[in-house]
Design a protein that fits this description.
Layout: H1 31-42, E1 52-55, H2 59-68, E2 75-78
Parallel strand pairs: 1-2
């Protein structure tokens, strides 16, 4: 299912988006998987999407962007 934003979205069967709850997800470190991802990035086959880079002083603006749901990819804060 595609959300109005154009992103893919799926609601749990029988629940509306207002009834669904987020659950924490814990994962174990996976060095082999990280090595595979690194190889894909280095080969140019995987590229992270970073449409917004803001200075650390604009952290509140970064939160607003993320919470708006209209960003795609990562919002990065620069400390330089």
């Amino acid at each position: 299912m595609t959300a109005p934003s154009g992103h893919f979205a799926r609601e749990p069967a029988g629940l509306s988006h207002t009834e669904a709850a987020a659950l924490p997800l814990l994962v174990e470190p996976d060095l082999g998987g990280l090595d595979q991802l690194t190889g894909l990035v280095e080969a140019g086959k995987l590229r992270p999407e970073v449409p917004v880079v803001l200075p650390l002083a604009d952290a509140a603006k970064a939160h607003e962007l993320i919470e708006s749901g209209r960003t795609r990819g990562k919002v990065v804060l620069s400390v330089h």
